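In this section we walk through a basic example: taking a raw amino acid sequence and producing a predicted 3D structure, encoded as discrete structure tokens. The instruction is simple. Fold the sequence below.
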Amino acid sequence: MTNLVITDPKESITRDLSVLREYAGRAVVHGEELAPSEAADQAWRMEEFLAVGSSFNLTFKEMVLQIYNGLDSEKRDCGCHSCRSMKKV
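The resulting token sequence is shown next.
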């Protein structure tokens, strides 16, 4: 027999969003490669996040924007002319 644990969809989407942001920050912003177990967890959480988000009538674009929201402020400074110029602003 399978035991199902029912959680509040808002809690579920909030938890998944937090973890997905962390994975996105590491992979996209910092260029790290996720471990195979993390990649599997990311895929599962993304599937769940998209399913719950769509139940709230969010579009795919809105959900992806939620994941990447604020990550641009974490961009690493590579030292190129562009990055140095951005620091002056």
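Looking at the output, two observations stand out. The chain has a mean pLDDT of 82. The helical segments are 9-29, 36-55, 60-68, 81-88. In the next section we compare this with other chains.
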